[in-house]
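Kindly review this protein for my students:
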Amino acid sequence: MIPRRLEPEVMDTQHEAREYDEMDHSGVNELFVSDFLSACPQSILNDSSDILDLGTGTALIPIEFCRQSKQGNITAIDLADEMLKLAKANIERADLSARVRLIKCDAKQLPFENDCFSVVISNSIIHHIPEPLVAMRDMVRVLKLGGLLFVRDLMRPDSVDQLEALVDQHTSNETDYSRQLFRQSLHAALTVSEVVEMLEGLHLPREAVVATSDRHWTVSTLLP
């Protein structure tokens, strides 16, 4: 197993934000939202549901969620000013300002009260965080009892050869810079076993995490 190698926690230059926004995330985002909606009981998702999206980047996940569902409002957070600037423009362009609010804050220190969100979602923020248990613990803290925690992230490969094969397979049409970002993210990602340890530390069921693709794991569980 290759060791975890951290990457910068915050992508906050104009170049990084625009490069990220211009990458083709559409298929991954559509699948994330459809899987989330399939996992979310109808008793949780309604017109008044409050959903928290951690590490929203340029708000592509909230926009896709609003495309697939007419229920629920999203609080989307990120720590990067340049990401949030593009997120604001994307939300306004999609005419979704009434359903999506943006807040700059740290996922490890959420400025919200306990038990205030019906759903907490996150796509690909965990690998950015040096101590991901801290962020996961705060996600659980702000989630209502019976609420849904739905977190997906990259999965660190067993070997450098497997990592490079994934880079070639999934970013063959991207720029060299985008390929390098993906390579670094795979190096920084957690394994399923490491996620299991986090879940046990949070008193959540270990079976809540599964490998859901050749490069992703997903945590999906209702807070007991």
Remarks:
- The chain has a mean pLDDT of 94.
- The two ends are 33 Å apart (CA to CA).
- The CA atoms of residues 117 and 217 lie 23 Å apart.
